[in-house]
């Protein structure tokens, strides 16, 4: 059995090397699945009447949570920090605010109820995250396979074939000449090409959390549309969790603005402005013009806003939309899969007829045609 990476030790190492902030390492080791388990287990322990500090010791003994997480929490709590403040740097800010609402008594059942709300919310987010990863994993691996095949063929197969058949590339013509030029280009410039291509992919991924001119239009198409679906679902789950914990709508929006990336912040800020001016949440969402998170959800929220608990409505919508979003993401990636399969088929065809075309072209040259 493989041993898990000790991110606590890694964080200590980085701190010793002079890195001022190592909280990102803590968060990597305390991922979404571990947090869900932690919230569930600790809520169950606290409900039996055990004090927080003793409850954390029990969680540590169970080994379901990294030791360094509990060690940091116990150390901070013993220094007088409240639980929500002790979680700083270990979990996303929104989750800390839900705990803070429980500590202040804004949630009916206090910290225990806040922990259960977080376990439910984080679990739903985990499903959405898994759907996105599964949807893009196959196309990406297929894409890498295609690139590897082209580079291998151009650098190994074609040169050996030409040398083995003693063909003169300068005497090739027509389609054979064009094919040779393409393979020769890949052979000579494959490394700069890969650097440029993966740099472009990296730039595209880096652009996701940012807003820029034209982004509203790009959000209609993958991969930006996939990002909009994913973040939109997280927004709904986060709003539902905060409101279920007793945080008012306007304060919930302020919390999301504080802890969100620039892309989401811009949209939430406009929604907040509408709510601050007296509009309902659905009306404020509609007035933004961003169609965020989704026009259908805005319409449904408008109906439910005056007749039901908004937090529960958001929770229901987020789950409905997550399922719908998962299906939409799947359909979009299926289109990408078909395109990549056609590319693979084209490359295999090219690889098959390439040597034959070289021989035919060379033979025609030698016979005078």
Folded structure, characterized:
With 369 residues, this protein is mainly α. It has two domains: 7-91, no CATH class; 121-369, no CATH class. Helices cover 78% and strands 0% of the residues. The chain has helices spanning 7-16, 23-29, 32-47, 52-62, 67-78, 83-86, 93-103, 110-164, 174-207, 215-218, 224-244, 249-259, 262-276, 281-287, 295-305, 310-367. Helix 4 (52-62) packs antiparallel against helix 5 and helix 13 crosses helix 14 (281-287). The longest helix is centred in the last third of the chain and has 58 residues, at 310-367. It is elongated. Mean pLDDT is 80; it is low at 364-369.
Low-confidence stretches: 364-369
> How is the biggest beta sheet arranged?
none
- Molecular shape: elongated
Strand content: under 5%
- Overall pLDDT score: 80
- Rounded radius of gyration (Å): 28 Å
Structural class, please? mainly alpha
Helical content, roughly? over 70%
